[in-house]
Amino acid sequence: MIPLRKKHARMLVSCFFLLLTLLLVSACAGQPNAEANARDILPEKTSVTAESPMEATPSSTAAGEEGSPSSAASTEKPEKVTVESSVLKTESSVVPTIATPSSIQSTNEERTDEDQNLKDQNLEDRNLAQKDIAGFHGFNLLNRRIYASWAPDDTEEWAFRFMEEYGFNFARIPIDYARLYDDPAKRTFNSASLAEMDRIMQRGLDHGVFILFDLHMVPGFDCNNGSSAKSVWNDAESLDLWGDTLVMMAERYKRIPASKLGFNPVNEPFGMTEAVYMKASDAVIARIRAIDENRPIFIDGLEWSSKPVYGMTDLTDVVASPHFYQPFMVTHYQAGWAKGADNFPYPVFPSPNIPNYLYGPYHTASQSDLKLSGSFPKGTKVSILVETVSSSTSLVVKADGTEAWRHDFSSASGTGEWKEARYVEEWNIWQNLYDRTYSFELSGNAAEIGIGCDAGDWLTFREVTLTSPDGTQLARITPSVSEWGVKQPAGPLKLSVEGKFLPSPGVDMMDGEWLEKNAIAPWETFSEKTGIPVLAGEFGVYNKTPHDVSLRVLEAYLKAFKSKGWGWSLWNLAETFGILDSQRADVQYEDWNGHKLDREMLDLLLKYK
User: Fold this and answer.
1) How do 210-218 and 221-222 pair as beta strands?
2) Which of 204, 386, 394, 490 is the most buried (most CB within 10 A)?
């Protein structure tokens, strides 16, 4: 039993605090604006304007209407939030309009008298283990208001309802840092952009989805254009702005548990050394840690996040976030932004891993024939798409060892069979672009076809197709190796009657095993050596790749992720890579609340979730 006098004392203390609270509320009510309130609390020489942007945002919007010109979020004049750099850099936790907005704080505000319990919750959530990461499955969600004008608004309420309905629990949110500011130099933030981030964070909390805020563009660098003259990698001012942006985010969401939110400081760095990358990354991550010691940091690898970075081993609470798009000529077939994609060979997977060069006797060490083994009836049409011819050479096709067709090539100036005459001064020769298909029909049945050059220099080809007399395509062979000097496979490539590629001794196949060896294994080794968990931050296949090929590539990756215990995030939910509204010409879509659902792809993802 507590003595009576202690109870009385507790009652007196409670009354005192209640009276003090009433006095404070009354005083605040007499203040002219939010700025005056903030200036009473903030350090000198700082200024904060605008109320919490979340408070002016409608709590709910009908699916399909949010973000439209008629919505409240779009028609309201954006309020401005201004915070000087010195405020962002302070370790003070008292920054009212930069701290988590009230609508998000509501998940914890009811426990303000138990702050230690909230801190303990964060401590419990620190150090996300591989088993936690393995349980993350979801999508990259785009948003034109904080990423790019062409991006769809995949962060609408319907997207989170879809994820919750099917059990997906992870969303990576690409952000262009510049869209967070009205004036980066003055560190004047755009309240509409901050409000959009807040809405996304709230939806993650409401629907059980972990949010990963990804700075897809940072000062002076993005994954498409590389580094400018002044970038975060070589310029102190740019590095400072990058850090200030992450500090604002860390302050704003520091009360969100580590199990609900992470940061991805930069997307797909390339064109720099590991030392340069990690020196800059260490600097901004240290600034995050000064505010939030246990926030999960997802770190991309080098060379568009394909190469592990062992320098991250000195950091705590980090997750390696590789991106997987191999084989690139398959995943990005006819993608308008990918250089040369309009000339990529027709995508096939699995496919034989063969070079696109056929060498003549000028290169005896590399001279070899591409051999195909199967059942090829009389009248089978053989077509070869020739790209570049160096100087002169002769292309020969043999059926069961006997010459069946020949064509002599000779590149020169002026006009000819070629599409473009190209003179190479270094070698003092013409290497013309033909980009032309040559075809003929077999005069008899054959069990093996050989294709090679028996004279001159070399040529490259993009495709070989075999078509039966009735018009059925027997095979489509597309080369995937463009390195100089690689010989054709020693053994013949075996084809089934249906034209499927069969296991062939001496022929390296680009299949699931090849992906594991070339794309997955380096990251598996990294995780084993460092103990750092792995989550595939991006993977996917563009909508111009045939649907059946896309599903086979995705399954190869998903199978590998599951076997390694890795989480994953498909690029993306909706639009050209996704399972909704992907605009594929070869898919029978289902309706999902007005959206076109790719049921086959969804079922595949659910199978490996």
Assistant:
1) antiparallel
2) 204
